[in-house]
């Protein structure tokens, strides 16, 4: 059985031709591929949304990872927002803090929903629960946010990769940020084409990002990469909604990400042997956590 | 296409911290246990590539052991899987390997009890999705996303037809099938992906067909 779309161009063309939302195309494809009803598919996505809500809530109450490397930053940001002194805007920082909250819970071996991976699980829910306060979506629109994200992630996963081990952080947080940007645009009333522009603009600014976790833990720099992924998504969504387009088409940006990932050195693909993991402090932290020196090239 | 569902992208719901190193690892362990057919008494867990480098930090070790104990990706018991293994009489050993495998996140589980042994190699391809790449030395490609039957048999004419006939009699539809053998005329392996979960009764019947040596299944 064939899918309804193989790339972003086909996805946007189909949505435009049938005058449907991107989320709707994703739902129809899921129904076609699995034979399940719309209600079943919505119910499963609703359960994922509940897990995301609970993770954000837990993180905003403050968590600490086993290693002690991460935790508590979501709370610091919320307190800062409450002080009324934020420079980059409360909505943006709210998205950032909720992305951080989710990844802090993930690092603490808490329950999360991978979007598209666990290491990048903060960006989509972080932006969703922030823009929710501004756009007042219905529950159905919130669930649709996840289908729109999923549609773009689906294309990336099948045409490139979504894991840091395969393609670096650009494949994980880069994809997550693009997915979030596209979903924000749809929720804000943008067109399918604008969703695609938002994805392209976001991923362009994540290209080349390596996966270099200190001590191999999904903590440093993963939590803060989710923070910036959320910020990147918010700004790119606004740019697309303002009418700005990407000179390089979305599918070609994904292709570029794929080729960059293929040529990326293995030390920079989740092996904890390069980048920040190989800094003096990164190595010292690894030695401290595991009680002995971890070999780093 | 490697990814066919939106829930491969938005999901799974899981215990952190890594979808490929924790959730995917738990799934490899669980499918391995499924294929073995019961809880093994011992397991040697060989880790390759990024799995070997970072398994401690990602909880890959507790996740695989949790999977062998039949824990799902969102089962909170994964965190304390080592204790559960001890209580349930599963002895295991983690063996980080330096050899390069085709995929960076590969685990090879050799497990057994007094009744038999089995080796299963799995790869974690991202977002918690896995593929089983080898069973008892046979190369194959199995996603674990669909119910499947694995049949070890002597490489003789009629074997495949007999198994297919048995499934047809029970109205089981075959979605995908492949056969591999290490040497002509020796042992071969049939991998049959089917549309519905398989009843123990059907497995029993298949195991009675001549030249069939072992039957195992993965339910979904």
Helices and strands in order, then pairings?
The complex is a heterodimer of chains A (297) and B (220).
Chain A: H1 8-17, H2 22-34, H3 38-60, H4 73-82, H5 90-107, E1 111-113, H6 123-135, H7 139-159, H8 164-167, H9 169-187, H10 192-204, H11 222-241, H12 250-263, H13 280-290
Chain B: E1 13-15, H1 19-36, E2 42-48, H2 49-58, H3 60-68, H4 81-87, E3 91-96, E4 105-113, E5 116-126, E6 129-135, E7 138-142, E8 148-154, H5 159-169, E9 174-181, E10 187-194, H6 200-208, E11 212-218
Parallel strand pairs in B: 2-3
Antiparallel strand pairs in B: 2-4, 4-5, 5-6, 6-7, 8-10, 8-11, 9-10
Helix pairs in contact in B: 1-3, 3-4
Q: Outline of this structure?
A:
Chain A: It catalyses: L-serine = pyruvate + NH4(+). Chain A: It holds the Pfam family SDH_alpha. The complex is a heterodimer of chains A (297) and B (220). Chain A is an all-alpha fold and 297 residues long.
